[in-house]
Structure formats: C-alpha cells, structure tokens
Design a protein that fits this description.
- There is one protein chain.
- This protein is mainly α and 298 residues long.
- Helices cover 67% and strands 7% of the residues.
- The protein has ten helices and five strands.
- Strands 1-2-3 form a three-stranded mixed sheet. It has a two-stranded antiparallel ribbon with strand order 4-5.
- α3 crosses α4, α4 runs antiparallel to α5 and α6 packs antiparallel against α9.
- The radius of gyration is 20 Å and the shape is globular.
Amino acid sequence: MTAIMMASAALALYLVMVLPALDGRRWSMALDLSRNSLIFAVLGVGVISLLFWRQIELVPILLLIVAVHEYGHVLAFRLAGHPRPVFRLMPFGGVAFSDRRSKSQAENAFIALMGPGFCIPLMLAALVAIAVTLPEGASMQWSSTTLRWEVAMPGSARLDAYEAAVIWAAIATLQWSALLNFLNLFPFYPLDGGRTVRSVASRLGWRFASRLTYALTIAIGVLGLLAGSIFVIIVAVIGLAAAKQEETLDRKLEPISNRDMLLTLGAYLTMLAFFGYYATPLLVRFVPALAPLFGPGS
C-alpha cells in the first residue's frame, strides 16, 4: 500500500509540475529543465537519498515538500508580475528565481514568505487526512512522555495496514514540512527568514538592514563553528556572499511601508510559531537538549 501511495504521489507530481514545464503554453509556472538544472536535480535527489537511506521511504515526501515550498515562491513571483519564474532542485533543497528584479522590499518579503506559506495548506491537508482516516474514537495527540505525536486508540483496537500507511505518511509530511520551514525562517541569509527580516529592517534604512543581516549571519556562522557543524558554516559563508552581492540592488528598492512592515512581521512570527509547534518532535530528536522544555512538568 505504501508503494502504491508513493507511486501515486510521484505521478501527481509529474502531471502537475513536469508536464507544464515541457509545454510552457499550458502553465508558465514550471521547473527549470536546462541541462545544468537537471544535473543539480540528480545531485539533489542523490544527496537526499544518501542522507535518508535508512528511511528511504521519506525521500518522496521530502521532495514533495521542497517542490511545494518552491512553487510558493514561483506563485509569488507570478502574482508580483514576473512573467516566467521557475525553480530548480538543488543538492540541499531548491531555489526559485525570476529573470527580473523586485521593485520593492515589500515585494521581496512577500516572495520570501510565500515559500513557507504555501506549505501550510499541505500541512492542513495532512491533518485532514489524519482526521478522516482515524477510526471512530481514535485521536492523534502530543505525548509529553515519548515526545512525539501518537495515535490513541480506544480499548484494544488497532489500525489496519491502509490506515497505518496513510497516517504514517500524513504525520511524516506534517512534521518534516514543519521542521524544514521552521529552520528556513531562521533570520539569517540566504534563508527566507533572513530575507524577510532584511526587508522589515529596511524601514529603518538600507544601511541598518545590511548591518543586521551581516550580524545575524555571522552569529549563526559562529554558532556553527562552536558546534562543529560544517554545513552551518558553509550556509553562513554563502549567506554573507549573497547578502554582499545583493546589497547594491537593495539600495535601489522602495523601502517597506509601515503597514506592510507590520503585516510582514505578523505573518513571519505567526508562521514561525505554527511550524515550530508541529516541528517539536523532530526538533527534540535532533537536539536532545530541548527535551526538558517539552517533557513532563514543562
């Protein structure tokens, strides 16, 4: 049953995202299918498969989450008037881009937040799938003892194979989408959170926004150095380079208005809390030091 579900998801992904890319007249929001992009895509699938080879069944779910996230950016580009934005899969995620620059900091923030925001309906669909599949009297609840989401069954009832497969896939989608988007909202470059915070800070001037961006990105790099995380250090270095490269362009953008700043900040903090709540089990698994915050007595 799990194999059938994976095959169906892959087919749906192909019909919705790949076919439009082959025929731009049908839908201009599409994958970048250039040779370099395909090479990056193969590397991306390979890296994700290597990282999760002990849980290979998670790979289609992770690819779906990345695709939905990047399509959020693509949709935002389209709504902002960009004619043909595309996205490509990369070794550690994805990237969406357009052939023209944004006009304002508010537009930059909107495009940045639409990636994580587009994953919220995916997570809500997962919650609906769980609610519909659970037998009568059963419920999904957070356990402060085991620090994970669990299915509470009435009496000696048990889930059948189909119910177990659907609920497993839905919970995996819910948790991994929450974790990836929660981390993506951290306020340093080149993550969406860093871009959002930079746009909000532009209200106080581009110099202040640039200095804040550099400070936050350097801070996360130092934390990565102290933790011995090569990956975090590399991301911080890439972020500093990207922030420096885009600094000149940012000076020319229209600053964000007070209204848009408050709306952006509200959306950012709301999504951070939403994703953080459902990411708790995976956060605790990867950072055991957080366990006392969510265990009994917390």
